[in-house]
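Collaboration report, partner site 2.

Our partner group contributed sequences for two proteins of shared interest, and the home lab folded both. The records are reproduced in the order in which they were received, starting with the first partner submission.
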Amino acid sequence: MKQRVLWSAALAATLALTGCGSATGTDSSSNASDKLVVWDWKSSDKTATAYVEKAKADFAKKHPKVTVEFVAQPFDQYYTLLGAAIQAGKGPDVMMFNGGGKIRDRVDALVPLDQLLSQDKDRLAGWDAFVKGGKVYAAPVTLQGHPIYYNKDLHKKAGLDPERPATTWSGFTADCAAITKATGASCFALGNKEGVAIQFFLSAFGSGILTPQEYDGWIAGQRDWNSPNVKKVFQLWKDVNDAGLNSKGGNSTTLFNDAFGIFQSAKAANIIGLMSDIGHWKDFNEFLGAPNVGVMTSPAITTGATPSLPFDGGIGYAVAKWTKDQALAGDLVRSLTSTDALSTFYASAGAIVSDTTVQTSAGGPAVTKLVNDLKTGKPALHVALSSKTLDLMGRLSQQILKGSVSVDEAVKQLGESDRS
């Protein structure tokens, strides 16, 4: 009880200190055109500073009398704080969301943006991750994908052709064995302390396991958890670890950022990374050198599977339903997804942004491969699942690695959660 009281007090203090701008709701003295408050977890990052300033400048040209305040919340508390604001019916005017379950679970508190953002539909990609019931609830800022990054230098040291990564699972594991023998590096860098690595694994290797029909059905909500191929994904998760292909202590290693550090220090040949602005090509280029960073899709694991890059809208900005001037807030979202702002975000953070007109040709071979793979990419499998099922999957993934739950039992529980 004491902990609950302290948490409530801390939340109340956070809401009071950050202010609510036009989102004060019950404050009749507030002028809806005076101030807009934005909650996110990115604006305090050094790599996002120039992007935020560019977006604010664009908005100021259209609305010079409106103040915009960014409040960066800690990511590990973000959705808890946001949930409390939603329950109270007041809080920020504009808020950041991850695509998928995180926003779909909360659309009752958000404004459909189809009309407000109609001019941006063709310019931006990644909308589907922010759609529920046929309505758009956020504008995508980045595209989030889960490519397999590999260290070309380690491939060379093992006598392998770094420009021709394996396209079959047997070839892939043979290459890993050669690299480990020659360099001592593990096959994969694994960090599953947060229970998130299984999401990356499902989406990265799913297209190499599920048939195209199963894949498309999964995304459409027709998920057969009794399918042998669905079970094979989670069996592979266990088999990879049992075979010693992962770096040691995966369940006690954070993905953000210890596992990435293992890959960046050349102690692992491969890692399932990101496309947005962390754990991605630009980070890896800085540590390994751009010529040594390779990108591949899943090797073919099941006959009939068609490996592809899994990607969706990554992060995006939404408008709260309680905001007094929803059109004004929507205009701020347009500034946050303007071409100039997103070009700056790509240049400073290396994020693969949602704007299809942003030039990425100077990013090096890894980003060139990523952008090319977008043409045949498909939505990520884990993004189609609810937050509840993803949370369960994270816990079960840790138990599978520990051997305290079987793959059959884990898949059964996930199917029950997904159907409920």
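Second partner submission, folded after the first:
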Amino acid sequence: MMNLDTTVELLRDFLRIDTTNPPGNEEKGALFLQEFLRREGLSSDIYVAVPGRANILSRIKGSLNGKPIILLGHIDVVPAKRDEWMCDPFAAEVKDGFIYGRGAIDMKAQVICQLAAFVDYARQGVIPKRDIIFLATCDEEVGGDHGVEFMLDAVPELKDASFVLSEGGSMFEENGSVHAQVSVTEKRLSQFILKAAGRGGHGSMPHGDNANEKIVAAARRILAYKWPLKAMPVTSAYFDGVLKDQYAENIKFPGLKDALRTREWRNCLERNEMYNSVLRNTVTLTILKGGEKVNVIPSESCAYFDSRLLPSQTHDKFFEKIKKLAGNDVAIERIGEKIPSPGPSQYNTVYFQGIKEAMQALKGNIPVLPFVTTGATDMRYFRDLGIPSYGFFPVTLTKEQHMRMHGKDERISLANIKEGLDGCRAIVNFLASDRIP
């Protein structure tokens, strides 16, 4: 089996490959993974969507035809500003038991742990029930057009998968206890741009038709609106498992639906960024563009918003509300209307039960709960096809570690890598077994 030191060095080398998207350049990462697989005696194929943007697929052949199991990851990472980090985000430095690097959590560590488990299973020489496919794609951070969407056309068999495992959940440590979050659905991506036109002029002579002022007024109305907290079956199952027997201002948690009717519990849930995010629609202002000189009134201005809707909400209803809040002085342009927004994967399945048993065998009798991922992942493409798809990386993360994802000083501990190796091996062994339908 691959040992911890070998896996850590493989991850560090992978982190040193700059696959920032845009532009991506994921082909370098795909070739790195292919060379490792070659050294292990495993074949793989590179699928180039456009120059420099590539995906890699390797397979362990099973005893049955069709309906493969897919271990899915992505090679690309979000940008990182060197001057904001304590060390070079692409140097993969090890400090105080942590590997620092862009993509350490999202999601190069999971790619490497899944790859190690895949290789270790192949080394056993045991034939799995179904084909096990290792698939690492490009372009996840900017929509997946050159990644999963491209691969579903290039390899139609992927559309017939029996199960997909990827990112979106982990074991979570909070207040001295640990529970496993297995993502079975995700919030709907609903991004948009506000655009305003006005009359240019000299900054010393305001005239009431300032594009920037229109954008600011509309943005303030949108951001001031408080979207209602809502319960869904998945979130009820999650919170009823996590908050059982806990108290908010001497009031015992009564179940999610009743908690949302209780001021004390509503306040408690809203104060927790993660809890707040999975219980309501969120709208975040991320980019402002308007003006070029301090003494010139701009004639055009725009603002970008990253919105995430509860899986039970519709885009059309959401934008009806946004238009009312924004008013008539601005135009709204939706981003990525074609991105699929499927429903949740079921969690009363053999896949969920198998992951639960594997984690409890390694970590003791911890709660293993269905979860809603607040970010978008490539699993939406598979869920849109009705394929059960779970997001889970078997490592224990704190809230502070979660908050570094997409932020400065992203890192993962050496202890996490050991956990990830053990957990991915256990899950792959289960997925290769006769228990899979």
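Feedback sent to the partner group on the second submission included the following. The radius of gyration is 23 Å. The longest helix spans residues 104-124.
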